[in-house]
Amino acid sequence: MILSIESSCDDSSIAITQIESKKLIYHKKISQELQHSVYGGVVPELAARLHVEALPKILEECKEYFPKLKAIAVTNAPGLSVTLMEGVTMAKALSISLNLPLIAVNHLKGHIYSLFIEKEENFPTTILLVSGGHTQIIEANGLNDMKLVASTLDDSFGESFDKVAKMMNLGYPGGPIVQEKGLKGNENRFDFPVPLRQSPNIEFSYSGLKNAVRMQIEKLENEGSLTEEDICDICASFEKTAVAHIMQKMKKYFKSNRPKNLAIVGGASANIRLRTAIEELCSKNNTKLFLSELKYCSDNAAMIGRVAVEQYKINEFVTVEDIDVQTRLKGF
Ligand code: ATP
Ligand code: FE
């Protein structure tokens, strides 16, 4: 079995995965959403402190599996350096004290492998990764054969939801809140510009849309107060535009690449409007669509454990001295 640790952002999570069967034996996650909600976003130092409390609590529950462990895995990049450090420090300590090899896992591969929890890998597939920190199109042929095809020039899809929610003091994470408010709103009231509409490139940008929303909110506030109806209309109009941007670029990608398989992964893949639009695009193009279970879309150690199983099989280990923490990664 492999014990895996995830602490790249605001979720403390540990999983135990059986190597041969890929079965998830144990999985627990303690989310910090509530603690960060008052600040409208993740506060790194607070997140790190909460990991220090949560991770040992979860680890305590895993002690019975220690004699069966063959390796310790941990997310080491990308993410917040201070929070990644907490998971990596625990992994190093376990690796030394239990005398087990260490596996460093790329968090984004984790999001991709959330598709394969308790399942065999399924490649090749094009991946649309939409999370809090990333908006990417990846062509994945295998664990160590992944090509980054498109990414965002600035903010990510999920992040733009978080920022729009913050502008109106709606709480964190913004995705589910904005989606919920948007369901009650008029999506045609505000005409926000779809980003990079004229650009021939397949790339994303969310900061312009975010600023257009900010200006609209300020205009309404200057004219009086922001009513609940205004908030719902802004959410609906923003979400419509945010999804239209992804879809415009995805259609372009489909036109030139005709993928056989497509998967959407990452926390923001929970967005219903996006899921529905992607489902339509796939069915029109005879593309098979794969989604991970909702509970594995956001950060968790089960997906890290699933990657670790594959790395274990090819002896992809790292030493306690060499493991490093990286906030950003260029490509795969
Ligand atoms: P990364 O993996 O890039 O480091 P992350 O792990 O913080 O980022 P996830 O946990 O995968 O990100 O996803 C969280 C993001 O998903 C948040 O930005 C959140 O607002 C967004 N999100 C969650 N649900 C929805 C939704 N229904 N609609 C839009 N965005 C959503
Ligand atoms: Fe993530």
From TrEMBL:
Please state what class of enzyme this protein is: transferase
State the compartments where it is located: Cytoplasm
Its main localization is cytoplasm
Co-factor(s):
Fe(2+)
> E.C. number, please?
2.3.1.234
User: Gcp-like domain: from which residue to which, for each copy?
Assistant: 25-305
Tell me the residue numbers annotated for binding Fe cation.
H107, H111, D299
Which keywords accompany this UniProt record?
A: Acyltransferase, Cytoplasm, Iron, Metal-binding, Transferase, tRNA processing
As its record notes, the protein acts as a catalyst of: L-threonylcarbamoyladenylate + adenosine(37) in tRNA = N(6)-L-threonylcarbamoyladenosine(37) in tRNA + AMP + H(+)
Spans through the membrane: none
CC cofactor note = Binds 1 Fe(2+) ion per subunit.
> Which Pfam family, giving just one, matches this sequence?
TsaD
List the InterPro entries.
ATPase_NBD, Gcp-like_dom, KAE1/TsaD, Peptidase_M22_CS, TsaD
Q: Which GO terms describe its biological process?
A: tRNA threonylcarbamoyladenosine modification
Might you report a single GO cellular component term? cytoplasm
**Which HAMAP family does the record match to this protein?**
TsaD
Q: Which family does it belong to?
A: Belongs to the KAE1 / TsaD family.
Functional note: Required for the formation of a threonylcarbamoyl group on adenosine at position 37 (t(6)A37) in tRNAs that read codons beginning with adenine. Is involved in the transfer of the threonylcarbamoyl moiety of threonylcarbamoyl-AMP (TC-AMP) to the N6 group of A37, together with TsaE and TsaB. TsaD likely plays a direct catalytic role in this reaction.
**Protein name, please?**
tRNA N6-adenosine threonylcarbamoyltransferase
Source organism per entry reads Arcobacter arenosus
Q: Which lineage ranks, top first, belong to the organism behind this chain?
A: Bacteria, Pseudomonadati, Campylobacterota, Epsilonproteobacteria, Campylobacterales
